[in-house]
Amino acid sequence: MKHDAELEKQIAKIAEAAKGKIGVAAVRLETGDFAALNADRHFPMQSVYKLPISMAVMEKIKLGELDLDEKIGVTKEDMVREGQRSPLRDKNPDGGEFTIRELIRLALVESDGTASDILMRVAGGPYEIQSYLTQIGIRDMKILNTEKEIGKDWQTQYENWAMPTAAADLIRHLCISDDGGSEAGLNCPAVMPVDSLSMFHDELRGILYQMAISTPGAKRLKGLLPAGTAVAHKTGTSGTQNGVTAATNDIGIITLAELRTVHDAA
Description:
By secondary structure, the protein is an alpha+beta fold. The chain contains ten helices and ten strands.
């Protein structure tokens, strides 16, 4: 494991242009080498928190407490307000029934706030999600509020925070093989077949697939990467109030072309 001081200098120089509080944690999963900037500070997660919520639901599915094809009722009262992103609400203003599989897809691929709130409820609420995070060793990440609650009060979004180090650890949990080995490529989206929807039952790989086809954030982690680079990510974006944007986030895994070649040949 090596601390990349030169890369940190480059990150810090780039961050100066943002004229805001910047937090970064970058880890090479195969080696543990890392670079960071303000990685031990609290940053509001915004929709990034839909990733750990979905992971907590998948854990209950893995344990047999829930089923992916179980239908969940969603009422008009469950919908997030206008102005908050929710294709589910827009297409089904009076509510309906949706499988957990579809709710996870909506939350991760389309960043749907209503779907995220229903998944939080299905997972057992913030306490159960926090318990899951503790179980997998993630301590510097807090999930307290629904999207509906966040939409009512500007300050509430700051109660749902993560340290960049914790975000990196969450990705590591997704990508490192269950046997504790360091073969990060095992679960990376770059080596997953195109019909990966069928892999939902294969532990957390279904989550990675949804992140790989997520639609928001073309100019975030993907922004300056070579065309065709495999990126599985989840963005988070706040509104702007009195000229202040609370957060612009992205969390994910990037598989560089040369690594993908090695993985494909393995």
